[in-house]
Amino acid sequence: MEKKNTWETYEAKDIKKLEKLCAEYRSFLDNGKTERECVDYIVNLAEEAGYRELAALEKTGAELKPGDKVYSVWMNKSIVMFQVGRKPLSQGMNILGAHIDSPRLDVKQNPLYEEGGFAYLDTHYYGGVKKYQWVTIPLAIHGVVVKKDGSTVELNVGENEDDPVFFVSDLLIHLAQEQLEKKASKVIEGEALDIIIGNRPLVIDKKSDKKSDKNGKKDGQNGEQAAKDAVKAGILQILKDNYDMEEEDFVSAELEVVPAGKAREAGFDRSMILAYGQDDRVCAFTSMQAMLDTSETDRTLCCILVDKEEIGSVGATGMQSKFFENAVAELMNLCGGYNELALRRCLAHSCMLSSDVSSAYDPSYASSFDKKNVAYLGGGMVFNKFTGARGKSGSNDANAEYIAHIRDIFAREKINFQTAELGKVDLGGGGTIAYILALYGMNVIDSGVAVLNMHAPWEATSKADVYETYRGYRAFAAGADDAKVF
User: Fold this and answer.
1) Does residue 172 lie within any of the structural domains?
2) Of 200, 229, 259, which residue is a domain's last?
3) Residues 353, 359, 363, 367, CA torsion sign
4) d(CA 439, CA 347)
5) CB of 453 closer than 8 Å to CB of 393
6) What is the C-alpha to C-alpha distance for residues 413 and 22, in angstroms, rounded to an integer?
7) Which one of 42, 210, 239, 317 is most buried, by most CB atoms within 10 A?
8) pLDDT for 226
9) Within a domain: residue 486?
């Protein structure tokens, strides 16, 4: 089956809408390089659209009615949004779900050290990465430092033009003969991904014994190098002056090291977006925006955006936690219909698009793909009937009846879509949150946007695929009801 490139189906009015959406998407990427930043951004948009916090309504005992919009945040890293439908919740919901965590470098709890005249932060990479891709590129630090008194300091250094950036060094080519003989997985070891954050030693005035200021300017003459680890001491002085932060505060910090720089249009034709974190924030954004742009429906709409997918959806903020189930129970309680059986029926009767990216065909590495069953940039929204590895291990495998139902909705709304697998059968694969929601018995299928350079510091998507996925999510949100038996 061959389909037209999605760009060929657009008229001028479609291109205008596409460009507007993609500009908003790039803003989302620029302002949401961590899970916390994504949640903050989403909450602001949700509240502007009339969403109210579920926890605040619980305290007042407010009753919810069809059309009401609520959201719930968990540990500042996951969020679920609901728009109450006209039908009872026990008849199920239409759910869009994605994840907002991305591969990166995490700063360790005892990270700061000096070696060879450099100050370093020790890191631990997060998610599946090719470690050699993270050396010699400009890096930024995002995150929070929570001090013992409970106060929080937010860091975002490396994104503004006048900010300093950070980097991981690599061995010069002139001395790299032995390094180049190593396997790609060993060229750069995980313990070598420490970022360089400084090189200037702290100096003191020999006479007055006063330290230099944060710019390195001495109070007097005859400055001399301070004691051992003077570069580290200089960094600590900067952290103290700018953030009132002590070295021990790293223990209760969550600092993420990500590529520095804004999302950019790519290609002479500006047809693509090149940016960090598009897996899976491209699906998170399109899911969220589809939810915000959909008016009252028969079935309750839900959009859940979670943390920790890249490391197995574990922990209190991952999809395997009870956060989502608890939020649905609280919603049902405020709608006046909660009991355990009603909750189980709600989850079992729900329909979901598990929104995650798919691998895009790369002609430079054609041997890794099955050309008949791969997603192409510009091919439209992608459906993966199953993911998993090799013999479908660890996957959700959507049933034929549900896929036919989705096809019917998309045909009516003229949504461009394609189907794909994650590479050739024996080469590997990947996972999403789909199988976790499927445990409730609901119908789930993986869907999303094709990504080139997936899990690299800079990933590429097609603007047409972003727009078509948004359109597909809107069509599903409004059109997937329980009229059919799957």
Assistant:
1) yes
2) 259
3) negative
4) 10
5) no
6) 21
7) 42
8) 57
9) no
Sheet containing strand 459-462, edge to edge, reads 264-266, 272-275, 459-462
Number of domains composing the chain: 2
Going 245 to 250 to 252 to 255, the CA torsion angle's sign is: positive
Tokens of residue 428, six digits: 């590997």
The residues with which 194 forms a beta bridge, in sequence order, are: none
> Does pLDDT of 109 surpass 80?
yes
Query: What does the alpha-carbon distance between residue 399 and residue 17 come to, in Å, rounded to a whole number?
Result: 33
Higher per-residue confidence, 68 vs 370: 68
Written as six digits, the tokens of 120 are 């370093």
CB 86 within 8 A of CB 297: yes
Q: Residues 105, 296: contact at Cβ < 8 Å?
A: no
> Residue 241: which domain range?
106-259
Residues 48 and 135 in one domain: no
For residue 412, give the 3-state DSSP assignment.
helix
Distance (Å, whole) CA 40 – CA 170: 35
Quickly tell me which residue has 């090189």 as its tokens: 199
Please tell me whether residues 451 and 334 are part of one structural domain: yes
CATH at residue 130: 2.30.250.10
Integer Rg of the chain from CA = 25
Could you give the CA distance from residue 30 to residue 296 in angstroms, rounded to a whole number? Answer: 31
Amino acid in the structure at residue 13: K
- Quote the pLDDT of residue 7: 96
Q: What does the buried/exposed string (b/e) look like for 165-184 if buried means 16 or more CB atoms within 10 Å of the residue's CB?
A: bbbbeeeeeeeeeeeeeeee
Residue 206 clears pLDDT 70, i.e. is over it: no
Whether 134 and 84 map to the same domain: the answer is: no
Q: What is the mean pLDDT of the segment spanning 105-121?
A: 97
Nearest to 328 by CA among 96, 46, 54: 54
What is the CB neighbour count within 10 angstroms for residue 362? 15
Non-local CB neighbours of 353 within 8 Å, separated by 6+ positions: 95, 96, 97, 287, 406, 444, 445, 447, 472, 473, 476
Rounded alpha-carbon distances, angstroms, from residue 158 to 137, 164, 165, 260, 265: 12, 5, 5, 6, 20
Last residue of a domain, one of 259, 291, 320: 259
SS3 state of residue 237:
helix
Do 90 and 147 lie in one domain? The reply is no
Residue 351 belongs to some domain of the structure: yes
* Tokens representing residue 210 in the block: 């006063």
pLDDT band, very low/low/confident/very high, at 220 (cuts 50, 70, 90): very low
The yes-or-no verdict on residue 210 having pLDDT over 90 is no
Q: How far apart are the C-alpha atoms of 121 and 110, rounded to whole Å? A: 9
Structure tokens at 67: 């059309």
Residue 419 in domain: yes
